[in-house]
Amino acid sequence: MTAARPAAAPARNTTSVPTIPIGSPLLLLGRGADRGAERGVVCAGDLPAPDDPTLAARARDAKAALGERVMVLGHHYQRDQVIEFADARGDSFELSRQAATAEAPYLVFCGVHFMAESASILGREDQTVILPDLAAGCSMADMAEGRQVVDAWARLERAGVAAQTVPLTYMNSTAAIKSFCGEHGGAICTSSNAPAAMRWAFEQAPGGGDDGKVLFLPDQHLGRNTAVLSLGLSLDDCVVYDPWQPDGGLTDEQLREARVILWKGHCSVHARFQPSMVERIRAERPGVEVLVHPECRHEVVLEADRVGSTGQIIRWVEQAPAGATVAIATELNLVKRLAEEHPDKDVVFLDDTVCFCATMNRIDLPHLVWVLEALVAGEVVNEVRVDATTRRWARVALERMLALPGDGASLTAVVGTAS
Ligand code: 13P
Ligand code: SF4
């Protein structure tokens, strides 16, 4: 297909993000949309047929026609058919760095909604961020709503601990929550800099040192693993705040004694891994090295040889000697790709059943072709744009994160308890 140059000012099909989303009516898959949260479940579009044999050629042609006007960013968990077209691949941290420095006026984000929002926050205001399927949300991010976080903060105030608490949110959260953290003296972290970010947060707490507390959103597992394995806190120093329970399910005394207040959220992909899977793989493949992502449960991480972000897992596989056997607990698209790229090593998936991230997988070649060809035709579809008020503080929080040491500050040094 021959593609024309894009018109100067494309028509827009925009989603904007209110400062604090409210309410959470049940939205059935494919019906309704909540543009203020991660629950964009509708993606109306005249998509090419998935069995169109020319899809890859169409994507190539559209990219060629757009030239330097478009940059495609791809998270490592994307399908092979999509990641092939990424100009930059990375984990959440790397992609946020890329978005902050990208020159292209159009950023097509092949990842999930919170990542596209972060690109919109970090990019220039004249840049346009496009998410090929608005239904590509994140179940973990959906576990914390802006309104719930405001309520939680009020709960900390009632318990008399808000003044000594710094909020720290994982990248996997809505723009509204990132903004809340920025406005309340906190920051963002990803799995590659969580230890540095949590140390930073404790340093910011008024009085610092022993009196400080961190409210960690929304992944309880990353928060717990970081607090215990990297910062040397105990499990008893951590409490879990449940936004669906009165008072968060915690007494004032529990809140006063806690050092880390973990939000009750988790990744539906990484939380599937169990210690029994590590036990089984060690029995089946003696000498195996078990690499896990810090979104995994603490009991799983304790059984692993190494724990690290997606980028770190990739580097460990690259560095493993030929003939090594490596079992990995993270998203399956990435594990399959690593196995294909390293035929001299035995790279296996830790789970015994299929475990793709369903929302990452929503970005497929038909959606990518659709948004690229629309751009070529002068139309912007599926734009993700964070409103100016939310953006202001969310950007502060993201910039605090980008100023921290990145990869290298992993949890890897402190695990390795098994074999
Ligand atoms: P990282 O990209 O920081 O490793 O996070 C993994 C993830 O679950 C992204 O959704
Ligand atoms: Fe969200 Fe987990 Fe999927 Fe990442 S892998 S997008 S945290 S559900």
From TrEMBL:
InterPro entries reported for this sequence: NadA, NadA_sf, Quinolinate_synth_A_type3
GO-annotated molecular function: 4 iron, 4 sulfur cluster binding; metal ion binding; quinolinate synthetase A activity
Determine the domain of life of the protein's source. Bacteria
Q: Which cofactor does it need?
A: [4Fe-4S] cluster
Q: Name one Pfam family in it.
A: NadA
Keywords on record:
4Fe-4S, Cytoplasm, Iron, Iron-sulfur, Metal-binding, Pyridine nucleotide biosynthesis, Transferase
Gene Ontology BP annotations: 'de novo' NAD+ biosynthetic process from L-aspartate
**Enzyme Commission code(s) on record:** 2.5.1.72
Q: Which reaction does it catalyse?
A: iminosuccinate + dihydroxyacetone phosphate = quinolinate + phosphate + 2 H2O + H(+)
Q: How is the cofactor bound?
A: Binds 1 [4Fe-4S] cluster per subunit.
Residues involved in [4Fe-4S] cluster binding: C138, C267, C357
Q: Does the keyword Iron apply?
A: yes
Q: Where in the cell is it found?
A: Cytoplasm
**GO cellular component terms attached to this protein's record:** cytosol
Task: Write out the pathway annotation from the protein's UniProt entry.
Answer: Cofactor biosynthesis; NAD(+) biosynthesis; quinolinate from iminoaspartate: step 1/1
Per the annotation, which location comes first and is thus the protein's main one?
cytoplasm
Q: Where does iminosuccinate bind?
A: H75, S92, Y170, M171, N172, S191, H293, P294, E295, T310
Which residue spans traverse the membrane?
A: none
Name the job this protein performs: Catalyzes the condensation of iminoaspartate with dihydroxyacetone phosphate to form quinolinate.
NCBIfam families per the record?
nadA, PRK09375.2-4
Family statement: Belongs to the quinolinate synthase family. Type 3 subfamily.
**What's the name of the protein?**
Quinolinate synthase
- Species name: Egicoccus halophilus
Gene designation per UniProt:
nadA
